[in-house]
Amino acid sequence: MGIVDDGDEHFAGAMDFEGFLHEQAFATMVAALELDLEGLAQNAQGVVVGVKGAVSTFQHFNGFTFHVSRFPPLLYQPAMSKRLTRHSRSAQPVSVVTGGAGFLGSHLLDLLLARGHRVIAIDNFITGSVANIDHLAGNTRFRFIQQDVTEYIFLKGPVDYVWHFASPASPVDYLEFPIQTLKVGSLGTHKALGLAKEKGARFLLASTSEIYGDPLVHPQTETYWGNVNTLGPRGCYDESKRFAEALVMAYHREHDIQTRIVRIFNTYGPRMRLHDGRVVPAFVSQALAHRPITVFGDGTQTRSFCFCSDLIEGIFGLMMGRHTEPVNIGNPHELTMLQFAEEIIRATRSRSRIVFRPLPQDDPKQRRPDITRARKWLKWEPKVPLSEGLKSTIAYFRGKLGRPRRRDRCRARLHRACRGAGHRFARRRIWW
Question: By the number of CB atoms within 10 A of the CB, which of 102, 117, 358, 374 ranks highest?
Answer without folding.
Answer: 102
